[in-house]
Specification:
It is built from twelve helices and eleven strands. By secondary structure, the chain is an alpha/beta fold.
């Protein structure tokens, strides 16, 4: 029997699902766990059937994908895990070099939209591997971090830097929440393996449910490895990060895509095709 190829982004922002997958909700599927840039590329090359992917990547691949309902990764305001660390005030970054993590996709676009449309400035962007030891490279005025690294930076700020939460900056600019990642399936998989897709969606739902019902155990399972406190992650998961894809989330995605198209990050504004599961 065909084993669906499922992509997962193992950041802390989906720890409940990660924990659910580890507790046997990944049975009968081939699970690939990596950073956004990797799973985005695998979906593009049809090496995965279903995956959590960056929101901007859904737009870029929308002709070949359907978006799955119910789940996403979003925040209503501050996200605390997409952080711009700067040597100078954000409005003074015009023409300056900003180093941006090689791990991301949506965050790159979000930063460019906020700076160009919100602050009317045009920095120079340099994609590179960033480290916590050297927050801002010597040749840069600022650096963009995402995921667990960004969360650590946000919670343990160092002196002599300014910190900007891109979720808050987006909310300030648009008045809307931000959806950072969505679950998507290849159209061909959805059409040819509708029963398997139903099973995959059920596993995702059951995995989330299990992880949230056992949230304390899920958090405790990563404390030693991730070097956060229980209270830090308990607040982050549920109070900051939310996982239900709402009508407001769809509306926010449309706004994000419109801005991305306006500043030439997307060739066209994509149609959001939600796969209705029966």
């Amino acid at each position: 029997m065909y084993r669906p190829r499922i992509g997962h982004i193992g950041f802390l922002n989906v720890l409940p699902l990660t924990y659910g997958y580890k507790k046997n909700f990944s049975a009968e599927i081939d699970l690939t766990d990596s950073v956004p840039a990797v799973v985005n590329e695998k979906m593009k090359n049809n090496l995965l059937d279903v995956s959590l992917i960056s929101s901007i990547e859904y737009a870029r691949q929308s002709k070949n994908l359907v978006m799955l309902p119910n789940f996403c990764v979003r925040a209503d305001d501050e996200v605390t895990s997409i952080i711009l660390v700067s040597r100078k005030p954000i409005e003074k970054l015009d023409g300056e070099k900003i180093s941006i993590t090689a791990k991301s996709a949506t965050a790159h676009c979000l930063l460019k939209i906020i700076l160009q449309e919100g602050y009317k400035i045009s920095p120079v962007y340099d994609v590179k591997n960033l480290t916590l030891e050297k927050l801002v490279p010597n040749d840069s005025a600022a650096a963009l971090f995402i995921g667990d690294d960004a969360l650590k930076i946000f919670l343990h700020k160092k002196e002599n830097f300014l910190y900007y939460d891109l979720g808050h900056e987006w909310k300030k600019m648009t008045g809307k929440q931000m959806v950072y990642a969505v679950f998507a399936a290849q159209k061909s998989f959805a059409e040819n393996y509708s029963g398997l897709l139903q099973n995959v969606c059920q596993k995702i739902s059951q995995g989330f449910d299990y992880g949230l019902k056992n949230k304390t155990d899920a958090i405790n399972s990563v404390l030693d490895e991730k070097n956060f406190t229980f209270d830090e992650l308990n607040n982050y998961l549920g109070n900051v990060i939310k996982w239900n894809l709402t009508d407001e989330g769809i509306d926010a995605l449309k706004t994000f895509y419109q801005f991305a198209h306006k500043i030439n990050l997307l060739e066209e504004v994509p149609e959001i095709v939600l796969k209705i599961l029966r």
